[in-house]
Specification:
alpha/beta, 7 strands, globular
């Protein structure tokens, strides 16, 4: 048994996957400042982390990738541009193994790729399910914090079912949409 990884890289292709750009557009439209952001799926482009470090809003991003090469590109990025590393950190690993006790509180969490990566390989070493992952990140959100989903994901049906159930249970409040993003808020 070995760790479930993404043995490739995701380069920026806005025609195929615009969620990171739409997220940045949402941040700009809200003029979100000083926020603590958890970002699921950095991509090899690291667009969210780089732009957040550069835009002057003071947001801090903790990303996670299961791609060794995406993590290596992050390391090269912050060696070459250490100012980016001050507000942008990237964990390497299976997101379904996140230990919530090791995570800080967040104002915003993106679950753009919820449902895309879980498989029996993850289950073999006791990883969380997609619902458990969503619940653990929801618990890390401050009251009134945002949870965002990507409606263009090939697994959005799975993510939507989880979001719908969390809303039905009163754990999540619907908060509209922005471009390809479904917005929800933690009560409080």
């Amino acid at each position: 048994m070995s760790l479930a990884i993404y043995d490739d890289v995701w380069d920026l292709d806005l025609a195929v996957c615009p969620c990171d750009q739409h997220f940045l557009d949402w941040i700009a439209a809200r003029d979100l400042r000083g926020a603590r952001i958890f970002h699921f799926g950095t991509g090899n482009h690291h667009l969210v982390g780089i732009r957040s470090a550069e835009d002057g809003r003071g947001n801090a991003v903790l990303g996670i990738t299961a791609s060794p090469r995406e993590h290596e590109s992050y390391v090269r990025l912050v060696i070459a541009r250490p100012e980016i590393g001050r507000r942008y950190k990237v964990l390497f690993g299976d997101i379904y193994q996140l230990e919530p006790r090791l995570l800080p509180a967040f104002d915003v969490a993106t679950l753009f790729h919820l449902g895309e990566f879980w498989s029996e390989k993850n289950a073999a070493y006791g990883a969380m399910t997609d619902r458990e992952l969503a619940l653990s990140l929801l618990e890390k959100l401050v009251p009134g914090g945002w949870l965002l989903f990507y409606t263009g994901s090939f697994a959005y049906d799975k993510a939507a079912a989880i979001a719908d159930r969390l809303e039905a249970e009163g754990r999540l409040l619907p908060a509209g949409s922005f471009a390809t993003l479904r917005l929800a808020k933690k009560p409080g």
